[in-house]
Amino acid sequence: MPQLNPSPWFFVMLLSWLTLSLIIQPKLLSFTPSNTPLNKTPMASKISPWTWPWT
Q1: What is the 3-state composition of the chain as percent helix, strand, coil, each rounded to the nearest 5?
Q2: What's the sign of the alpha-carbon dihedral 19, 25, 30, 33?
Q3: Alpha helices for 1-55 (secondary structure H)
Q4: Using alpha carbons only, what angle is made at residue 36 by residues 34 and 40, rounded to the nearest 5 degrees?
Q5: Is the pTM of this model over 0.85?
Q6: Where does the sequence pass through the membrane (predicted)?
Q7: Which among 36, 16, 20 is positioned nearest to 28, based on CA atoms?
């Protein structure tokens, strides 16, 4: 069964992870988010009971 032989696929996996972590990831992390989160105080929600028509 050729699937069990890791010899050709290990190099492919290693090369893809190195490409991702050394080339692509720094380029993606260099972008600044356009929608930065704000420090907002949480508002208390007003909860009203549901009126069931059959009770």
Answers
A1: 45, 0, 55
A2: positive
A3: 7-19, 25-29
A4: 150
A5: no
A6: 6-24
A7: 20
